[in-house]
Amino acid sequence: MSTAVSPLAPKSYPDLPAIEGVSFATAEAGIKYKNRTDVLLVGLAEGTTVAGVFTRSKCPSAAVDWCREALAGGAARGLLVNSGNANAFTGKKGRETVRLSADHAAKALGVPAETIFLASTGVIGEPLPAEKFAGVLDDAAARLADGPWLDAAKAIMTTDTFPKVATRTVELDGVAVTLNGIAKGAGMIAPDMATMLSFVFTDAPIAAPVLQALLGKGVAGSFNAITVDSDTSTSDTLLLFATGAAAARGAAPIETIEDARLAAFDAALADLLRDLAHQVVRDGEGARKFVAVTVTGATSDGSAKRIALSIANSPLVKTAIAGEDANWGRIVMAVGKAGEPADRDRLAIWFGDTQVAAEGERVPDYSEAAASAAMREEEIAVRVDLGLGDGSATVWTCDLTKDYVAINGDYRS
Amino acid sequence: MSTAVSPLAPKSYPDLPAIEGVSFATAEAGIKYKNRTDVLLVGLAEGTTVAGVFTRSKCPSAAVDWCREALAGGAARGLLVNSGNANAFTGKKGRETVRLSADHAAKALGVPAETIFLASTGVIGEPLPAEKFAGVLDDAAARLADGPWLDAAKAIMTTDTFPKVATRTVELDGVAVTLNGIAKGAGMIAPDMATMLSFVFTDAPIAAPVLQALLGKGVAGSFNAITVDSDTSTSDTLLLFATGAAAARGAAPIETIEDARLAAFDAALADLLRDLAHQVVRDGEGARKFVAVTVTGATSDGSAKRIALSIANSPLVKTAIAGEDANWGRIVMAVGKAGEPADRDRLAIWFGDTQVAAEGERVPDYSEAAASAAMREEEIAVRVDLGLGDGSATVWTCDLTKDYVAINGDYRS
């Protein structure tokens, strides 16, 4: 099993500023990993609103069930995340563990258990020993601080080879508001969504229903447009917390989605989510290539996205990319199997800037050398035009390498 | 790229008897491969009926288009198969090539071109040089013989590591009738169907519409219940030819699907198709394990099959099996992502005879040693009971190994 940092990792990490109302600490509970942090405890100021998007798995983890219930309250005072054990498919014990974990965190933070949000990631089916939290949470609560954010991102990693952070700043009523996000995820990544945890924090004063609407929009072009292996986790969780602290500095609270002042925040959130989602793909297990698959000319945007995902999830396409092989025949195969409207004799295909197929056959002056050169790049753009309509979509994925098999062939042992 | 024979290959091949009305020859046209046969020409007696099932790809190969048209006639006098080039996504040239190939074969066999069936498999998107057939088909037609069938199976191989043959004999009106089948396929194997070619021949006298009905039934539990990598080829073709020669020996023609005399033939055909389909899985690219996934207790048979395919297609399940890891958490994940009715807290899971989960959690006396022992076997049975209804289904697949990535990372080069 390779433990080297992904070659697609960012060359440097941004410096994340403090966010008023958010403080956190990490700890080593020794749940599965030794000699590394595996717990993140976050304290949130009174008045913090929250929105969430979760896995669509029919077998969600106990923590996901808990968060869905807690979300109904719309208020958040704390977040507890552990890595190494997903507390998924653990039956009644899992529900008890979630309750105990929330109680521990609530007591440590001095807030109601119903305002604690929980996320667990790691092995499925193993009972999570909640008692391991008992010792570390009181200590962590005593150490809450407004940084460093990279430590928070590190504590939630499992098979990730690098921590994932992003930050954006926008103006709201002339006041600077900040968005900080962290994420983890490397395998079992597919819409909707992934073994993917992501937590975004802002000091903007935004009501919970508005936050939820923004998050639902933002996720479509980010976490729901990436795939590593088509597998969907039982634990996927994306939470957005807004402390509202910027209100004291003059940013008036936003109560409706129609508020024109939202535009900049909305764009920044979408951009930050896409940034984090791309980092997850860049850390795809065994990944050596970052691939953008764009489909245009489809009968609808939805159809374009389904075709793009069919391409991005195809093991034959992904192994060809791993082999730096401009095998556009497999792109045709993946278009054909998507079950969406497509006309073989109108298809056009590009690798990078090199068009390899037009009107259903190889272009006459096709340059294998140019196509091969495009495939040797670390970032590869695959584009398909269907010639049928105006629908388009882009999804992001990585290649399928021997390391993916190695990493996942003995993950549990 | 590994060229060793799959460890899951049959230990011996059955001896296939001659079938009255079927004669064939193989040839070396040098389309892609050197020093091996890559063409199979089959002559069929007058009166031969035919049925076919093809890929559901929206971008089928030119040969598939041709066969669909030819099938409407219901009569077959010849079959031409080449390996090394799929003549798929070759535009107008592809259609001309198909026409030229059929003309060549028709001339060589002395029959109408409209009764010639065609199949091509191999690289997609490269023009197939039809002129390469010109020389070899006349010669092949002069060498037509009623065996050996293993040679026919070898000529149609691409990345296959062993030829696939099967035979069955049943009585019809007290007369022995024979079914012989050959198949090829190793990757791009998924319902519905696979880069899979299979040709079945019988001397039973059965009308074309009846043949078609039998084939449709037989394919559901065989070629449409296997998956290697979830990818669906543009060229999948399964053809069933019935020469009717047994009529002269006293087997009265079968004109309707209600004919009670069909029962034995129907069962034998289904069994032969399943045999061939299993051989395709056993030759799955890089496969080291033959895996049967059975889902019971689903709300319907269709729901059970969709869940079984979600498990069988999951890269994380398949890599765990490659790693001999009894990772039942990934089975839960795959059940959850199928989108079919499932209740986490009713799930039961077995590896072989070892139950690992019951009522949504690990069984109390779970034996890792027993589960691990089951995973070390060459043939692995995964069973999931949903506890919801009476729906059930079994699908067959193989593991996902580093060799799959190696084989597909540089196939074209």
Automatic annotation (TrEMBL), chains A, B:
<feature type="binding site">
    <location>
        <position position="413"/>
    </location>
    <ligand>
        <name>substrate</name>
    </ligand>
</feature>
<dbReference type="GO" id="GO:0004042">
    <property type="term" value="F:L-glutamate N-acetyltransferase activity"/>
</dbReference>
<feature type="binding site">
    <location>
        <position position="285"/>
    </location>
    <ligand>
        <name>substrate</name>
    </ligand>
</feature>
<feature type="binding site">
    <location>
        <position position="195"/>
    </location>
    <ligand>
        <name>substrate</name>
    </ligand>
</feature>
<dbReference type="Pfam" id="PF01960">
    <property type="entry name" value="ArgJ"/>
</dbReference>
<keyword id="KW-0055">Arginine biosynthesis</keyword>
<feature type="binding site">
    <location>
        <position position="184"/>
    </location>
    <ligand>
        <name>substrate</name>
    </ligand>
</feature>
<protein>
    <recommendedName>
        <fullName>Arginine biosynthesis bifunctional protein ArgJ</fullName>
        <ecNumber>2.3.1.35</ecNumber>
        <ecNumber>2.3.1.1</ecNumber>
    </recommendedName>
</protein>
<comment type="pathway">
    <text>Amino-acid biosynthesis; L-arginine biosynthesis; N(2)-acetyl-L-ornithine from L-glutamate: step 1/4.</text>
</comment>
<comment type="similarity">
    <text>Belongs to the ArgJ family.</text>
</comment>
<feature type="binding site">
    <location>
        <position position="158"/>
    </location>
    <ligand>
        <name>substrate</name>
    </ligand>
</feature>
<comment type="subunit">
    <text>Heterotetramer of two alpha and two beta chains.</text>
</comment>
<dbReference type="GO" id="GO:0004358">
    <property type="term" value="F:L-glutamate N-acetyltransferase activity, acting on acetyl-L-ornithine as donor"/>
</dbReference>
<comment type="pathway">
    <text>Amino-acid biosynthesis; L-arginine biosynthesis; L-ornithine and N-acetyl-L-glutamate from L-glutamate and N(2)-acetyl-L-ornithine (cyclic): step 1/1.</text>
</comment>
<dbReference type="GO" id="GO:0006592">
    <property type="term" value="P:ornithine biosynthetic process"/>
</dbReference>
<feature type="site" description="Involved in the stabilization of negative charge on the oxyanion by the formation of the oxyanion hole">
    <location>
        <position position="121"/>
    </location>
</feature>
<dbReference type="InterPro" id="IPR042195">
    <property type="entry name" value="ArgJ_beta_C"/>
</dbReference>
<dbReference type="GO" id="GO:0005737">
    <property type="term" value="C:cytoplasm"/>
</dbReference>
<comment type="function">
    <text>Catalyzes two activities which are involved in the cyclic version of arginine biosynthesis: the synthesis of N-acetylglutamate from glutamate and acetyl-CoA as the acetyl donor, and of ornithine by transacetylation between N(2)-acetylornithine and glutamate.</text>
</comment>
<keyword id="KW-0963">Cytoplasm</keyword>
<feature type="binding site">
    <location>
        <position position="408"/>
    </location>
    <ligand>
        <name>substrate</name>
    </ligand>
</feature>
<keyword id="KW-0068">Autocatalytic cleavage</keyword>
<dbReference type="InterPro" id="IPR002813">
    <property type="entry name" value="Arg_biosynth_ArgJ"/>
</dbReference>
<keyword id="KW-0012">Acyltransferase</keyword>
<feature type="site" description="Cleavage; by autolysis">
    <location>
        <begin position="194"/>
        <end position="195"/>
    </location>
</feature>
<feature type="active site" description="Nucleophile">
    <location>
        <position position="195"/>
    </location>
</feature>
<keyword id="KW-0511">Multifunctional enzyme</keyword>
<dbReference type="GO" id="GO:0006526">
    <property type="term" value="P:L-arginine biosynthetic process"/>
</dbReference>
<keyword id="KW-0028">Amino-acid biosynthesis</keyword>
<keyword id="KW-0808">Transferase</keyword>
<dbReference type="InterPro" id="IPR016117">
    <property type="entry name" value="ArgJ-like_dom_sf"/>
</dbReference>
<feature type="site" description="Involved in the stabilization of negative charge on the oxyanion by the formation of the oxyanion hole">
    <location>
        <position position="122"/>
    </location>
</feature>
